[in-house]
Design a protein that fits this description.
393 residues; alpha/beta; 6-stranded mixed beta sheet; 15 helices; elongated
């Protein structure tokens, strides 16, 4: 097996220079660096990572704590983190905190004990123990997706990377209002998460922009998961005056909302329009295809790695928050035609308004169908396209 001394002889440099190239401990002239890299490639030299970590006090590893198993959105972020880490020569250690504050602190401690150089963490709804641990041990960390609001009179403690949430949610609401809807419901996420609060704020801003009053009876909590959203949507549909349009605040809750609408015998968008926050790989395979806000998931992951590496290179620099823009993906679940143009909107507005006016009667009829034991037939006839239980798990 070739050694560092073999690489040095082949490149015509000292062993120390090879070490500086491998460990990035001192600047090396570009042509010298390239000669070392060429020698490494030619000889097939593999650095001893353990020995390198003893010299540099770095393991060239990053800890990632996100609920990737249970949330497809974080799975895409993980892919962005992994690709960016590999590009910069870092390995990745992954732990799933399950959005549980106590488990979150434990997995972060385990990652820290494995001497990762830094961490990327998506905080839970109650991150106090997490933040206390990171502070106490001075762990270089980037908070992902869910931001922590610092006091206005103090400098931010941690770097943060997330998507815009408020304006994109307002865009969904104003789009639905522009189609004639006046009662627009929101299935919101887990209380305590910054994403939940920001999307509720965006919902309210959208109503204000559209000149519509805020009705807290039209905002329900789906707890950021499918089963919770199914129950929450069923509660909305049981209202005396149910919404004629619905905004769901993440991809898992979209699935739960669709199940509840199906159970009520309601068709999207004929009986109720639907827009969702979070696009996902199979959103355009639904019938109708889902109008959504797409977050730049992989870019968020890659940006988190970039920010963390900057933190490792300059530990004393001021922390900051990076927000990436989202994209409005116009499909047909909102009630628009496939072309999504202004002409299509004008053609369909009157028909859509008529459907909205009849939503209450259709909801009542669907409940009667359920009570008579015929809901299973109606469910299969109208919504056989929707995924069954377990699609998101």
């Amino acid at each position: 097996m070739p050694t560092m001394a073999d690489v040095a002889r082949s490149a015509g440099v000292s062993v120390a220079t090879v070490s500086h190239v491998l460990n990035e401990t001192r600047p090396v002239l570009p042509h010298t660096r390239q000669a070392v890299l060429d020698a490494i490639e030619e000889l097939g030299y593999t650095p001893n990572t353990l020995a390198r970590s003893l010299v540099t006090a770095r393991t060239r590893s990053i800890g990632l704590a996100v609920s990737a198993i249970s949330n497809p959105y974080f799975t895409e972020i993980l892919q962005g983190v992994e690709a960016a880490a590999l590009k910069h020569g870092y390995s990745l250690l992954i732990a799933d905190p399950h959005d549980d504050p106590e488990h979150e602190r434990k997995v972060v401690q385990l990652l820290h004990e494995r001497r990762v150089d830094g961490m990327i963490v998506a905080p839970s709804a109650d991150p106090r123990a997490l933040l206390a641990y990171l502070d106490r041990h001075a762990v270089p960390a980037v908070l992902l997706d869910r931001v922590i609001e610092d006091r206005a009179d103090s400098a931010p403690r941690f770097d943060q990377v997330c998507a815009e949430n408020t304006e994109p949610t307002a865009r969904l609401v104003t789009h639905l209002a522009g189609l004639g809807h006046r009662r627009i419901g929101l299935v919101a996420g887990l209380p305590g998460l910054s994403t939940t609060g920001e999307r509720i704020t965006g919902y309210r801003q959208g109503l204000t922009t559209a000149g519509l009053p805020f009705d807290d009876g039209l905002v329900v909590t789906g707890n950021s998961e499918s089963a919770g959203a199914e129950r929450a949507t069923a509660a909305l549909m049981a209202l005396t005056a149910p919404p004629t349009a619905l905004v769901t605040a993440n991809n898992a809750m979209t699935i739960g909302a669709l199940r509840a609408l199906r159970a009520h015998g309601l068709s999207v968008p004929d009986d109720i329009a639907l827009c969702c926050f979070d696009d996902f790989a199979w959103a355009d395979l639904f019938s109708p295809r889902l109008t959504a806000v797409a977050q730049p998931s992989r870019e968020i992951g890659a940006e988190a790695v970039r920010v963390l590496l900057e933190r490792l290179a300059a530990p004393d620099r001021t922390a900051g928050t990076v927000r990436l823009p989202c994209t409005f993906v116009h499909r047909t679940s909102c009630g628009c035609q496939e072309d999504g143009g202004a002409a299509a909107t004008a053609r369909d507005r009157s028909a859509r308004s008529a459907r909205s006016a009849g939503s209450r009667q259709r909801s009542a009829r669907s409940q009667q169908v359920q009570q008579s034991g015929q809901s299973g037939q109606a469910e299969h006839r109208q919504h056989s396209e929707y995924p069954e239980e377990g699609t998101v798990s």
